[in-house]
């Protein structure tokens, strides 16, 4: 397993990181635990989760598994404070169910969410604590002040953010340097061959200012694996079918066309389409590690060999022909209100 430095820190993470959004939704706990333990045994040392994953059940599974296996010190736990719901059982999609202080990255919610995540994870500290989506209405003085206090209290080791625009990442760096707040060490954006927009600003920014990039959706939600044949008829047990909404909106006609060609390209070089999709992200300039989110133990075992592979320049060029650098044919930023819509980009 290759390990890479995160930005300007001395922190080293595996070139593949484990995403756990499937834990408990739909992956049952027994298989989720097996996936986590197998990942650790094979050298993956970054486990990513969030306080809203399966309404907190994802964190609980990780906590129970690590406590039982006594492998807490073998991994870096990265979790998130969501900008939405805060109280268990409340739906982020129904504002009528929570009060005015139950959402947003306020000092109140950041500290409260951290305490709750620590309990669910059964740990004394979180290695990397991330802001899940921006809260533009809340000033960075309040956000970074709260995060810095958590670091000074020993409850958090490093801080980061997820799906933030480049200008906001830069603004956070400015406030940290001016006022002595803890500095974000990495951003976690969506990135795959179908949505390459972070190449325009975020990757150059991260390279210049020492920010690690741990990216999500490297397989384009299965579109790049050739799983979808129609953008309005989803396969059983796919995310688009199980969750609908913005997941379904990421499946586009252009994306499916590219996914079919991409699958054939992978077959020609002796890889599965899923392996090639992960490999493409892993070996792109400026990327620290892609998050792999296996639904089953078999999926994990299929992806693990990618850690020892290298993307050839010939295949890189073929991929660029399918979707040019910096462009987009399926919107994986569609949960980010700051990003232009599918219509603006002409992909809907």
Your description of this structure?
The chain is α/β, with parallel strands linked by helices. The protein has a domain at 3-188: TIM Barrel. 38% of the residues lie in helices and 13% in strands. It is built from 13 helices and ten strands. It has helices at residues 29-41, 57-69, 107-121, 140-152, 166-179, 202-209, 239-243, 245-249, 253-268, 273-282, 297-303, 313-322, 342-345; strands at residues 3-5, 12-14, 17-19, 46-48, 76-82, 126-132, 156-162, 184-188, 212-215, 289-292. The chain has an eight-stranded parallel beta barrel, surrounded by five helices. The chain has a two-stranded antiparallel sheet with strand order 1-2. It is globular and about 55 Å long. The N and C termini lie far apart (39 Å). Mean pLDDT is 90; it is low at 86-93.
Describe the structure concisely for a colleague.
The chain has 13 helices and ten strands. The protein has 348 residues and is of the alpha/beta class.
Q: Keyphrases for this structure?
A:
13% strand, 10 strands, TIM Barrel, alpha/beta, 348 residues
Write the layout of secondary structure elements.
Elements: E1 3-5, E2 12-14, E3 17-19, H1 29-41, E4 46-48, H2 57-69, E5 76-82, H3 107-121, E6 126-132, H4 140-152, E7 156-162, H5 166-179, E8 184-188, H6 202-209, E9 212-215, H7 239-243, H8 245-249, H9 253-268, H10 273-282, E10 289-292, H11 297-303, H12 313-322, H13 342-345
Parallel strand pairs: 3-4, 3-10, 4-5, 5-6, 6-7, 7-8, 8-9, 9-10
Antiparallel strand pairs: 1-2
Helix pairs in contact: 1-2, 2-3, 3-4, 9-10
